[in-house]
Please model this.
Amino acid sequence: MATLQNIKGFRDYLPKDALKRQVLISKISQLMAKFGFDPLETPTLEYAKTLAGKYGEEEKLIYKFTTPGGDEVALKYDQTVPLARVIAQYGPNGQQQLPIPFKRYQIQSAFRGENTQKGRYREFLQCDADIIGSNSLVADSEILALVYEIYREIGLEIIIKINDREELRDIPAKQLSSIDKLSKIGRDGVLNELGNRGLTTQDATKLLDRIANLKPSDNLTTIINFFTEMGYPKAALEFDPTLIRGLDYYTGLILEVVLKSDPNSSSLAGGGRWDKMIGQFTGKDLPAVGFAIGVDRTIEAMEEAGISDTKLTSAKVLVTVFSMELGQVSIETANKLRQSDINTELWLDAETKLDKQLKYADQKGISYVIIIGPEEVEKKMITLKDLKNNSQQTVSLIEAIQQLKP
Model:
C-alpha cells in the first residue's frame, strides 16, 4: 500500500485551518474593494516563455514541465508576471478591454521549488494588489496605505520597510542579491558571499557601506509625505537602504512588511514599483506598483500573537433528530434557521442516539444544539442547549432565532 503523505512543501488544509484562511481572505478582500480594487484570476499554468527572464536568480525555483501535447509550461511563480501578461493581452496595447489606470487584486496560489522552512512552502496563497498605468507617486502612497490598513484590521503591529530600487540601478543584480540577505546572514556573511562573487574584501566593504549610508531619495520622501497626508503614521514606515527585494523587475519603491516586535523575521508581505515588465510583452512600458501578502506567514504571525480565529466549524447550530417519527420537525426547524441566515447542520441519521449527536457537536466545535422531542413538539417549543456554557433553555423557535442571529 502506498504511503499516505503530502509532497514536501505542499499541505492539506483541514477545516480549522481552512476557516482561518477564509476569515483572513474575507477581511483582505473587503479592504481591497474599499480602496477601489477589483478581483482578477489567472490560470495556474503559463507558457514557460512567459515567465522566463523575469525573476533573476530566483528563476531556478520555477516548476517547469512539458505537456503530453509538447507545450513547455510552468506553474506560476507569483501573480505579477501573469498580471503583466493580462495587461499586455487586454490593456491599451491589446484588446483594450481594461480601463487604465487598472486597479486589481488577486488571491490565488503560487508555486516555488525552494527549500521549505517555517512560513515558506512550495505552494502558497498570495494576495496581490496592483495599480497599473499611473506614474503618480500618490499611487505608491496608496499602496502603502492599503498595506497598513490590512494589517491594522488584522490586528498585527507591523513596520513597512521601504527603499528606492532606482538608487541601486548601477549595482549588478548578483551583488544586490547578496546584500538582500543582510538581515539573515549578517554583515560578515554578506561580505563573504560578495567575495565569492569576485569582489575583494575592500571593494565588498565599500559597496556595503555605500548602500548602508544612502539617504531616502526625493521620490521616497514625496511618497512618505503623501502617506502621512492621507492620515497614516510616519512611524509605520522605516527607510532601509539595504532592502533590495530579490526580484529583478523592481524599478522604484520597494517595500517589505515585518512584525514590529521582530523586524528581522521573515517578511509578511512585499512589493514595489515595476514599470518595465509590461513593455517586455508589448514593446511599450506601462507603469505599475503593487504588493503581495503571504497568507501563510501572516496567519502564523497571528497565531503566535494569539489573535487568530480559532473556529473549528462554520456551523453554529446542530439540529438533532430525536426519532424517525419526529424527523420531519427537525428538517423544518433546520430550514427555518437557515432562512434566518444562521449556519445550521442537520443530523442525518434518525436512528442515532441523542448522546452521540451531542458528542459529535461538541467534538466539531458547534456552539449550540437544538433538541425537539415529544414534549417540545406538544408545547410547540424547542430545547436550545449551549455547549460552551453547559446550559439549556426551552424556548420558542422564534426566540431561539433571535438569540442565535449574528
Summary: The first strand starts at residue 38 and ends at 39. The chain has a mean pLDDT of 92.
